[in-house]
Write a structure and sequence with these properties.
single chain; 73 residues; alpha+beta; Alpha-Beta Plaits; 4-stranded antiparallel β-sheet; 2 helices; 37% helix; 27% strand; globular
């Protein structure tokens, strides 16, 4: 499954790059891109593990950029 999410309060392109690299290291992640310009995160992961991987990605984002939030609609 591939989904895109808006990022709220991503203030630094370098932090976005750190998030992308860390999320790619999560077991099961097939691909991840974080765009500072568009304020979006695109995550590709297996359907059956997607929600768990997304939770881990949210924790990584908070650790790197405490004000940043992944908007899930």
């Amino acid at each position: 499954m591939k989904k895109s999410f808006e990022l709220d309060e991503l203030d630094c392109a370098n932090c976005g790059a750190k998030m992308e690299a860390a999320i790619k290291k999560i077991d099961g992640v097939e691909d991840c891109t974080v765009s500072f310009l568009t304020q979006k995160l695109t995550l590709t992961a297996p359907d059956d593990r997607f929600d768990d991987i997304l939770k881990q990605a949210k924790k990584i984002c908070k650790k790197i950029e405490p004000d940043c939030e992944i908007i899930v609609k």
